[in-house]
């Protein structure tokens, strides 16, 4: 089992970053992660207005996967997510639909027995661990880990949880995979700009799918497929995610574009991942399709 420690991280996805680990296709790796604030918020008195924003959303990695080449797909199976014992929820200046009548605040919360969030003396709820940032290097330049894109990045999608698989298009040799920004829980839309931000570790299996030719991130869960897209215009993001799903149905399941469109209208869902507007980060949406009998997976 390979292990990448939380002091081996980057703040952007880029083909220029030197890998911290090289693995073979099919290898399992444990990535130990910092929280999205790089541990800068240690108490309720530590507000986001006083931290270094240059240290936001570190991704543990990058990992070079042997055999991964442009035009391939990297499959990252989320085998296990383990959480640290304390997380934090914050409001952010000028971000979120309700910030105009909310205070800037940090709230530390305890994780009870690794499975429940103690929000207050009276309120607690089940953890729903998920990965916020997951991706590979883009084809050129660099993209800050706090931003989403066709390479992945800050997808903030609750479906990226234990038991799911994330399929990422490969743009550079080795893919240069990384992840971070764990949440003990995060509501769809991340309405205040954060979920329960927390450090922890994630065990993944990284597998190269040769010549699979995927255009953008896709997430597979036990019962569904999710195409993920982002844009500052929410309607443009929905359109892109819908086109990506339509293309996948046409290419993989051999339906006509119109039949795919009809099927999406019958059983598909548009779901919000991150929409804490106003916000400099693009809105992230996903289109969900249930797994139906006779429809093969991406690796088949």
TrEMBL record:
Molecular function via GO: hydrolase activity, acting on carbon-nitrogen (but not peptide) bonds, in linear amides
Superkingdom of origin organism: Bacteria
PANTHER family noted in UniProt: FORMAMIDASE C869.04-RELATED
The protein's name in its UniProt record: Acetamidase
UniProt source species: Paenibacillus durus
